[in-house]
Specification:
This protein has 285 residues and is α/β, with parallel strands linked by helices. It has a single domain, classed as TIM Barrel (Alpha-Beta Barrel), CATH 3.20.20.70. It contains eight helices and nine strands. Helix 1 packs antiparallel against helix 3, helix 2 packs across helix 3 and helix 7 packs parallel to helix 8.
Length: 285
């Protein structure tokens, strides 16, 4: 547990110490990222931005948001819509924290409600996020888009620094997580982190409805949230489009059907969640 009085400089130092035997995510690989040792995420010490733009497509609470995409990820989702760029740890421009902090502060002054940090997986760049926050002339409204596979210490170090978590609860069971994202012990780690974040930092939990995964993933995700985080803010995305390696999997190589979307919405109506859905309903009839 991180002491609440730990200042930003101390947090940065702690994060850099973690890089030498990395346990920023639940792979807990122990790689020395300062020496370029191979880790599942392929990341070293530097952080690179491979894309950024002003977005009006986030939830209404978030937009307009300046989206910042950081390279490197600890999952390998077959359906990733930013692959393969997001898996390249050195694609794009390297972040110099002091300069980048000024750029983000200027974007907020110009009207960005949030700085939406995406990836890849942003929490793998814990040290950089903390350095940018330390260098900023004012507190930054950081919205971290995460796959929730980080370790508890990462959450504690970011407490008070992250303004909002945009948390992807992708799978309702470990078998689907392993098959589609090649990640072990998914459910126990993701649900633990949801409980850790809840009540400490505002959060929107997101779920992408995928064809053929209504019963195994969508329903368990919604039912767990309703039982364990009643009243939580939940966003359902129904406009799934096959991309990256989706075509290699028979269940996710198509659009959602109208019936799958209808069943998902009807299931949500009976649950204790503050939910909404996207308007993009591309379907397979």
């Amino acid at each position: 547990m991180i002491a609440p009085e730990m200042n930003l400089q101390e947090r940065v130092s702690r994060a850099y110490g973690m890089l030498k035997e990395c346990e920023m995510c639940e792979w807990r690989c122990g790689a020395d990222r300062t020496r370029g040792e191979q880790a599942p995420c392929r990341l070293g010490q530097d952080t690179f931005v491979f894309n950024q733009y002003l977005s009006l497509s986030e939830e209404h609470e978030v937009r307009p948001a300046l989206r910042i995409y950081l390279g490197g990820c600890n999952l390998r989702c077959r359906f990733c819509d930013t692959a393969p760029q997001c898996f390249e740890p050195t694609a794009g421009q390297r972040i110099v924290p002091s300069l980048f902090a000024g750029e983000l502060a200027a974007a907020v002054k110009a009207g960005s409600k949030y700085i939406s940090i995406l990836g890849g997986e942003p929490t793998l760049h814990l040290h950089t996020l903390l350095e940018v926050a330390e260098a900023s002339p004012q507190p930054l409204p950081l919205a971290v888009n995460t796959n929730l596979y980080m370790t508890p210490e990462v959450i504690h170090l970011l407490e008070g620094i992250v303004s909002l978590y945009l948390a992807d609860f992708k799978f309702g069971n470990d078998a689907c997580a392993c098959r589609l994202s090649r990640v072990p012990r998914y459910l126990e780690n993701v649900t633990r982190n949801l409980l850790l974040i809840h009540g400490r930092t505002p959060m929107i939990v997101r779920h992408l409805l995928m064809p053929g995964h209504l019963e195994c993933c969508f329903r368990p995700v919604v039912d767990w949230l309703s039982a364990n985080l009643p009243g939580a803010r939940f966003q359902l995305y129904t406009g799934y489009v096959p991309c990256y390696r989706s075509k290699d999997d028979p269940t996710i190589s198509r659009l959602n059907s109208r019936n799958e979307i209808r069943e998902a919405v009807n299931h949500l109506k009976g649950r204790n969640l503050n939910w909404s859905k996207d308007r993009d309903e591309r379907t397979e009839d």
